[in-house]
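Example record for the data management plan.
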Amino acid sequence: MANLKVLSAGAVKRGVAQIAAEFERATGTQVAIEFTPVPEVRRRIAAGEAADVIVATPAAMDEFAAQERIAHDSRGFIGCSRMGVVIHADAPVPPLDDTAAFTQVLLSASEVVRNEASSGIYSAKLLDRLGLTQKLGEKAVVVKTGSGIMEYVAAHPPGAVGLAQISEVMVMIAKGCRVKLAAPLPDEIQNMTSYEAAASSQAPDAARALARALAAPEAKKVFAATGIS
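Corresponding structural encoding:
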């Protein structure tokens, strides 16, 4: 029986883990999953690391396809994640109805926290577009991962604000991290990050089956319950 290695973006952690566990029970195939930001997935695959199934953004998958690292016919859409504003569990929920309110919340924050992953890259561009990069100055904090955003906000007095994938916020809240989702980003500045699954071009048939399971219609309900729509 094959043992599979999965290298996956962290934003889809709960759904991927649940479907992989169901796949294990149904097939007897052991599945080992490592969750890491998409830029790290890209770096590791480009460096030659082997993974039977990869879960990443379409742009990353395009790169892997061009490098012939994934099986083209195994590639499938999982869903999209939206971004939100995360605050300490003890902090009052601020108004976040529109971009002006969002801007004021960030300017009033003690720190504004983002990560180095795809969502963090978007956050950096958004802050720049709104003219906030220089205004925030040293209040802008960059951590490595999505979970690191919640850990930072929880570990500091109420006042810090994080910009994170809603799916990752839900994971950390479920783990007992003392944060809460204040609101999604306002629609006019919202960022939808898509995720796909694919089997490696050199992977066994079981990897293709798992990639298909992750992108199957019945998987959509599982991901929807974790904030991936």
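Summary line stored alongside the record: The chain has two domains: 3-80+193-224, 83-189.
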